[in-house]
Specification:
With 459 residues, this protein is an alpha/beta fold. The protein folds into four domains: 140 residues, 3-Layer(aba) Sandwich (Rossmann fold); 123 residues, Transcription Regulator spoIIAA (2-Layer Sandwich), CATH 3.30.750.210; 119 residues, Transcription Regulator spoIIAA; 53 residues, OB fold (Dihydrolipoamide Acetyltransferase, E2P) (Beta Barrel). The protein has 13 helices and 20 strands.
Length: 459
Amino acid sequence: MASFYVENFGCRATQADGAAIERQFEDRGLTRASAPAQSEIVVLNTCTVTAAADQDARAAIRRIRRENPDCQIVVTGCYAQRAPAEVASLPGVNRVVGNSHKSQLADVIFSRQADAVPRNASNSDFVPLSSLTSQSEIFVSDIFAHTELLGAPVFDGPGSNNDRTRPNLKVQDGCDNRCSFCVIPYVRGQSRSLPLPQIVEQINALVNSGFREVVISGINLGRWGRDFDAPLRFEDMIEQILNQTDLQKLRISSVEPMDWSDELIRMAATSSRIAKHAHVPLQSGSDRVLRGMHRKYRPWHYREKIEKIRAAMPTAAIGADVMVGFPGETEADFEETWRLIEDLPFTYLHVFTYSSRPGTPGASMGDQVPVQIARERNRILRELAAQKKLAFMRTFAGQTMDAITLNTFDGTSTEALTDNYLKLRLEGRHEANQWLKAQVQRVEAGALIAVKEATQFSL
């Protein structure tokens, strides 16, 4: 029986796509290999958000070709969609399958017939090109004609479903924004949403399988439902999940600042079934830079949203994406970003250094920031973020917190994650996927150190 292995790069959406690809192979009777070196078919599900992401994919292709020269290498995902000919030219690559054809990837591998054509593509759009190398084929078409939403639940941790926790469910894909630095709309297409009945059905299936927390995610999650013939709001989905499922804890992943409506903040603050966690992309604290990025808010709008979230949820985790080194970013612009971050109650940051992406407006902008300056700004913000995170964690010493146990035991303690997104080490061995009351004793090595509270009660 043929074997396969899917290696994912990048964001949660890519991981959800990878899980769906695995299902395609399993439905055809293939077995999942434990590593690329033991697999007959290796699928690299790539990211292209930065130049470093492209480099990671190329390095993986070289590694797999060296370790397993007889396997078939299939490259899919965002890098494959953006630069198919470039990927096809790499030694060892057998097929390049863009996001436009990812939902039919298994058909592409096992069939050259017309039934490999996605339902929304014409025969003229489906183009297997013998390109650049005699053995490489390219299957890519217009991503903006793509209307399907691919994805399957992704789980934290390896092993069987019994060992996994906190499944991530992708409910939205694509983006209609055009931020000048971002290539994602050009490789993932227009915003599209998973229908609400399917969301409820999938979450109920996960609950019936014993899972207690589900993370909902998307490329532009707050835009969920806007593409329907009868548009719905993101808040409508949250309300129906709470009303039509018995899910113990819903965690909302990244939502753009202007999509944090007063109603969404109220729902997150008042429901014990919604994790106290808000991830709100910032990118820059400089009004001038935000305008150059084509972001749809100003620093004062952003400040207002974060202050509302903190007022409604005093113990919530509040995180942000921040970019340094955008073309033309001056020292004064960076100082504005630093001051805004220092002022606001962030508990963690994801700090990125600008990476020029072919085909984006940012790539043609002048006044590119020298890389050494951008890296130093990145270091400064990461240092500030670490200080803010540590100060936040220390406020919980001596307190009781809700935490879900994960599947990692180091011999003395079990890893867990609090409702407000803090890493916790719980003394002793505990079954995974359980919400427990934990008495926090101290902060040590980036984690809360805690013991299980004697009196336990369900959420």
